[in-house]
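thread: overnight batch results

M.L. [08:02]
morning all. the overnight job finished for the chain we discussed friday. pasting input first so we're all looking at the same thing
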Amino acid sequence: MEALETNRKKMVALLNRMATLDGMRSSTLDGVHLLRSSCSLQRVPVMYEPSIIIVAQGRKHGYLQGQSFEYNAHNYLTLTVPLPFECVTEVAEDGPFLGIAIRIDLAVLSELLLQMDQRTRLTLIRSSEGAEATVSANPLDPALSDATVRLLECMNSATDATILGPQIIREITYRVLQGKQGGALQSLLTSDGPRMQMHRVLHRMHADYARPIDISELATEMGMSISALHHHFKALTDTSPLQYLKTVRLHKARMLMVQDSLGASLAAERVGYESPSQFSREFKRLFGYPPSSETQRLRTAFTSPQPAAQAS
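M.L. [08:03]
and the structure it wrote out:
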């Protein structure tokens, strides 16, 4: 516990220097994002790409399909499928919410599994709890927290980040692969046919979200009927392909408006909407506010001063 607390304090100090803006921001390393929130946020829709999320300070409560989970300084989050869920953010008494998100790289994952013998891979599946879980919070151990500190430290230097960063990300992936969600990570590469095909569909949607997607053509490309595609997609994401794509577009548009200061019409166009009025209706339906109000609400929340902590 002492090692974990020491590492946590190091992470807080490093993130306070690097994560100066609220929200999820890109870093000097591809696939690594820094998380910061200066204020607590109510339950709002969020969407992460497949990632390992490690929290240094504060906590988040996630809600998905009737289940809830918490990730904080003691529990990291593993998300193997980019699912939309709802989240509550809580700052700490002495500072903002701080964390780091590391994208799960299938090439790195594949390389690690190839270097493991068959017995080790089978042990991963048998020892993993809920190996098919797409999202899970699990206890942070000293080895994983130590690797995270080293990753943040190397990002202080562009040269160190370029040379050391990918190796430390590889180590972090390996540590998670050895943990309770190791089976879930392995399933990304060894899933059955339909599940793997749905991962390909999800990847397509996130890569080409601004382009029209023809479900019948997509089903043909996957070698299945339209009804089969809908069935397998809903089993994995709890929603339909078109509804999922709409959610991806709306999340991307909100990010463009809040972080890049784009107007609603331009953001709508950037993510593939032809009708600004349709965009506004669907945006309000998902987030509860019109685009301009939601943008202003988040900007105000992020810039509002925090009240002093009250003595108990």
